[in-house]
Amino acid sequence: MRAGRDAGQGRSETGDPSVTTPLSRNDRDVILVGAGIMSATLATFLKILEPDWTIEVFERLPGAGRESSDPWHNAGTGHSALCELNYTPQGPDGTVNITKALNVNEQFQLSRQFWAHLATEGHLDPTAFIHTVPHMSFVTGDPNSAFLKARYEALKDNPLFQGMEFSTDRDTIREWAPLLIDGRDESQTIAATHNNAGTDVDFGALTKALLKFASERGTEITYNAEVRDVKRGDDGRWTVTVRDRGNGSTEAYTAPFVFIGAGGGALHLLQKSGIPEIAGFGGFPISGQFLRAKRTGVAKKHQAKVYGKAAVGAPPMSVPHLDTRYVGGEQHLMFGPYAGWSPKFLKNGRWTDLFTSIRPGNLLPLLNVGVTNFDLEKYLVSQLTLDHKKRIAALREYYPEARPEEWELIVAGQRVQVIKKKGKGGTLQFGTEVVASSDGSIAGLLGASPGASTAVPIMLNLLDRAFPEQFEGKWAKAVKTLVPTFGTKLADDPALAKKTFEATSEALGLAK
């Protein structure tokens, strides 16, 4: 079987793979674009399922997980819908739709299973990337309290949401999160839910650990290598043109399968690939900012991820949260996000990204979304005019006694919301979407939340789509070992849900 090249534009920072004589120096079985959580997850799966396949990861930055997977560039929440209110919309009749919440939670359980398997086998140290942090929802006012109670009633008996508590009692909520209550107006109506099953995940640390695993088994990881073009040859193989950002030279590589996990950069490369499936897709970039507590003493007063309700017109990624984070093993406290805007599709992207993504096929959807999303535009304008005083005022809705001098502003990552063609116009999507060629030989991931938390099921579904014969044949048993409940709904099997949650909690060192 072919193996990686002997020398390249930058060796892996996680280990040197063994090298044998390739069929052609630049032939690969698989090429992955971007060294983030998606490519890291896919590389790990493939190295387990097909250890002899030659795989190369190209990353334009000097190291892994430095864009959306960086711990300061994402919420770090193990998104399981325990606290995210946007996953449970309320209808005009007052009923709460929990369909998306169940789906997101099911997906996160699959991610937990994969990580737990790798931890049990000694390939991951869970203390480096995942911690138990209770998940809470918190609202004020009578209408919002009624909504939260209805949400609680709809979820509390489901096997995936066992342990959820609801309260309007100030003393109870103070026990859960004292910063929410101290200094708050006694006459204000409040309500909260609490679940000890929540987690905080450092996806940057996880990305590096997964790539270390893949690299030690022969995966090439080349940094400072920017993929500039993707074209299909007459033989059906994909040719990927890579520019060395150090010396400016370019080189071409070929593979029968390419995955583009380049965050906001995926749209441009999918467009360059020429696949018809990308026609009509566009992107709208939104950046984020957070307040971060300067002193660890403030952070240690709060041990929870507290999510509220988004402002009218705000995208789901802008849901406010007072958020316990663990980065490098140290506890931090953040609040936000506050939305920002630039035409870049990556934090380290180009100012021309938005404009160069416009094509005849997506121009009308882009214009239509611009005309029909006035609330979003109004929200963004209001966010761009915020100063430190106004940001602290927003923080005090969750932490009434917050002191301005104890908080600093940090710039988070850049997200590109998906715009899709719909009829004669377009629609703005707030999730993640895999766009793939009809034969599954090339695919890319677009969108944002819940993103990283659902990397495992996203990559499993991609493997099924790209390699259906192997997935249903020789890989089937291994997949069931790696992710035992893949293809099964835990929400329909309380006993299995309990057993699975307890097993993954033990393997990952989490509270049960």
TrEMBL record:
Please provide the Gene Ontology terms (biological process) for this protein. Answer: tricarboxylic acid cycle
* UniProtKB keywords: FAD, Flavoprotein, Oxidoreductase, Tricarboxylic acid cycle
EC? 1.1.5.4
Q: Which InterPro entries match?
A: FAD/NAD-bd_sf, MQO
Q: What is this protein called?
A: Probable malate:quinone oxidoreductase
Q: Which reaction does it catalyse?
A: (S)-malate + a quinone = a quinol + oxaloacetate
The segments labelled Disordered in the record are 1-24
Any one Gene Ontology molecular-function term assigned to this protein's record: L-malate dehydrogenase (quinone) activity
- What's this protein's family per the entry? Belongs to the MQO family.
Q: List compositional bias (Polar residues) regions by residue number.
A: 11-24
State one Pfam family annotation. Answer: Mqo
Q: Which organism is it from?
A: Pseudoclavibacter caeni
Q: What EC class does the entry list?
A: oxidoreductase
- Membrane-spanning intervals of the chain: none
Cofactor annotation: FAD
User: Hey, which pathway is this one from?
Assistant: Carbohydrate metabolism; tricarboxylic acid cycle; oxaloacetate from (S)-malate (quinone route): step 1/1
